[in-house]
Amino acid sequence: MIVVNRVEDIHEALHGVCLTIGNFDGVHMGHAKLLQRTRERAVAAGLVSVALTFDPHPRRVLMGNAAPPAITLLEHKLECIGQSGVQVCVVLPFTRELAAREPEDFVGQVLVGGLCLKHLVIGYDYAFGKGRRGNFEMLSTMGQKYGFGVERLDPVIINGAVVSSTRIRDMVQAGNVWDARPLLGRFHQVRGLVVHGQKRGRKLGFPTANVGVRDELVPLSGVYAVWVEVDGILRPGVANIGKNPTFGDFDLSVEAHILDFKGKIYDQPIRVHFVQRIRSEKKFSGPEELITRIREDIGLARMILAAPDARP
């Protein structure tokens, strides 16, 4: 997939595109439907399939620190979009000026003039531009003017409710990572480099990889059965998210004990795929009680991860 930050970078190579547009936070099953439809329509019509998204997320620009955490940062989002088979992704820098732009101007100059739009696929509730006037009705009118078609897809319903980034975010923040998987189409993950920690796990007999997390959306504190991915290899593990109350720590950390693994992975990139929450964080009376509970956690994690539907 080709990734560009300006439509001018690919304008000369385009003779017509089938486009979908959105924030695609999480690139969940609703987004997957949009991307698949865009690719199918492009192939059928001999067009280039294009996804247009924004970075940073518009809420981050408009709401600042009050914005909810992103499910996927840009690197991960682009990976997921690329897996859909879409040929080009345009990542436009989002600014307050862009938010205030009249939607008619954006359609005429960017979508038609810049991307040679021939067919547009949008979600059931999509709207953009000043006053969010860039909705299905307005786009249909603009399509008649400029000669492009507009297709609005129905929402994706899973377990009786619409799939949305908000719903997924709420699930992950509540620790319901198993229930979030059908909506995402994968287990929620966090990424980062393995950093040096207090090395308490090693002293207890259960060395952990301390993750310098880059992602914004971290599951609820507690112990989880996980898959730990290093160099593309998935290994079973147990992860703890919390502040290690037994030892009086105050900073939130993500630590993963990789089962049956003895390698050294300091400073290496790591991904932790959260499969199921085992228990909440607890303050133990001391190291011996903690060791006993860790052994129980590992046993439960092995059982969970052995299930056929527990693999990413």
Automatic annotation (TrEMBL):
Enzyme class: transferase
EC number assigned by the record: 2.7.1.26, 2.7.7.2
Catalysed reactions listed for this entry: FMN + ATP + H(+) = FAD + diphosphate; riboflavin + ATP = FMN + ADP + H(+)
Protein purpose: Catalyzes the phosphorylation of riboflavin to FMN followed by the adenylation of FMN to FAD.
InterPro entries (alphabetical): FAD_synthase, Riboflavin_kinase, Riboflavin_kinase_bac, Riboflavin_kinase_bac/euk, Riboflavin_kinase_dom_sf, Rossmann-like_a/b/a_fold
Entry keyword set: ATP-binding, FAD, Flavoprotein, FMN, Kinase, Multifunctional enzyme, Nucleotide-binding, Nucleotidyltransferase, Transferase
Keyword Kinase: yes
Positions of the Riboflavin kinase domain: 183-306
Keyword presence, Flavoprotein: yes
Gene expressing this chain: ribF
The protein's annotated pathway: Cofactor biosynthesis; FMN biosynthesis; FMN from riboflavin (ATP route): step 1/1; Cofactor biosynthesis; FAD biosynthesis; FAD from FMN: step 1/1
Protein name: Riboflavin biosynthesis protein
Family: Belongs to the ribF family.
